[in-house]
Specification:
By secondary structure, the protein is an all-alpha fold. The chain is about 70% helix and about 0% strand. Pfam families: MotA_ExbB.
Length: about 260
């Protein structure tokens, strides 16, 4: 049987096919399904303007929830910039006062900086260490003023957006076409856009508030550590002065006359 098959393939009708090279399946696929030419992406000059239009569309589609979210964003931005300005080094630990304390001197403080107010209080209450430390803790509380509101904002903004998500989905499936027994495409599209817009705005406000809160708390911790070191040095200096005077005082008392 094999001899018969080989004799048939060697017949004159099959001789022109012998020795001819045929394209591989990969080459055939490249011919049938050519790959599209890759062109470099071109950035249109109006891309920023188009992004602004998209943001305006998101704000417009958010509906009535845009007002509390807008209020949260304004408050968050104000707190971040106000605390960043209030916690600058010159307003908390001025360099000249810090150097004076490190050198062992207790300069007269002023009310323009937190360290100056603490030094002023310490000089007016010499020997009352607990009162000075309590006043320093009060200044630390003032340094943290407003940061707690950022925590509330980054927790509340996504929840406000979630309210928009739930209400938008309820609106999407509340209107049903009587003929197709399916949700109305127009109402469905508007409701889904409303839900997604509220969610995006809520997350977009919560993220900067979270970052700002973490950054400001880190700055407060750094300033408090610096103040703590300087305050301990001031209190040690004030505590050493009465002890030294008590040791020297008996030697200065004149001997009684005999």
């Amino acid at each position: 049987m094999l001899q018969t098959l080989s004799s048939r393939l060697s017949a004159p009708a099959f001789r022109p096919l012998q020795g001819r090279k045929y394209p591989s399946p990969r080459a055939i696929s490249r011919e049938l399904f050519p790959r599209p030419a890759v062109t470099p992406r071109q950035v249109h000059p109006s891309s920023m303007f188009l992004a602004a239009i998209d943001l305006a569309r998101i704000v417009r589609e958010a509906g009535y929830l845009v007002y509390p979210l807008l209020l949260c964003s304004i408050v968050a931005v104000f707190i971040i910039f106000e605390r960043a300005y209030a916690l600058r080094p010159s307003a908390v630990v001025p360099e000249d006062l810090a150097e004076a304390v490190i050198e062992g001197r207790v300069p007269s403080g002023d009310k323009r900086s937190i360290l100056g107010r603490i030094l002023n209080f310490a000089q007016r209450h010499v020997g009352d260490t607990e009162a000075t430390k309590a006043y320093a803790r009060l200044e630390v509380i003032r340094m943290e003023r407003g940061i707690g509101y950022l925590d509330v904002i980054y927790a509340a903004a996504p929840l406000i957006g979630l309210i928009g998500t739930v209400s938008g989905l309820l609106g999407a499936f509340s209107v049903v076409d009587p003929q197709t027994k399916m949700p109305d495409p127009v109402v469905f599209t508007e409701s889904v856009g409303y839900a997604l817009s509220a969610t995006v705005l809520g997350l977009g406000i919560a993220l900067p508030a979270l970052i700002g809160s973490g950054y400001l708390r880190r700055v407060v911790d750094k300033r408090v550590a610096h103040l703590d070191v300087l305050l301990e040095r001031v209190l040690a200096k004030q505590g050493a002065a009465p002890a030294a005077s008590a040791v020297v005082a008996p030697a200065t008392i004149p001997a009684p006359l005999r």
